[in-house]
Amino acid sequence: MNIQEAKDIRLVDFLAGFGYEPVIQRGNSVWYKSPFRAEKKASFKVDLHKELWYDFGLAMRVLIISFQCITCIAY
Fold first, then answer.
1. Is the pLDDT of residue 68 over 70?
2. Domains in the chain, ordered, with CATH?
């Protein structure tokens, strides 16, 4: 897989592949419980229009490639 192919993966599809399901969708925002820690309320937001994610617990906003890299390191 090259960089462009990785960028073309939708974040919601990538998360679904790991078994993460959205808690709620509001407009272009889809909210999940963070895949990086245990939590009771959803604090991980995916912007469907920009294909960016923001984790309010980590105060991080990045693209899919960064998420894939973090996921590989975490697992």
1. no
2. 3-74 (3.90.580.10)
Place of tokens 């920009």: 50
**Structure tokens belonging to residue 14:** 């990538």
Q: Which residue has the tokens 């407009």?
A: 27
- Please give the Cα distance from 4 to 25 (Å, whole number): 27
Tens digits of residue pLDDT in 12-54: 998 999 899 999 999 999 999 998 889 999 999 999 998 888 9
Widest distance between CA atoms in the chain:
36
Sheet holding 24-26, edge to edge: 24-26, 29-32, 44-47, 52-55, 60-63
Integer Cα distance of 7 and 42 in angstroms:
24
Q: Which long-range contacts (CB under 8 A, 24 or more apart) does 59-62 make?
A: none
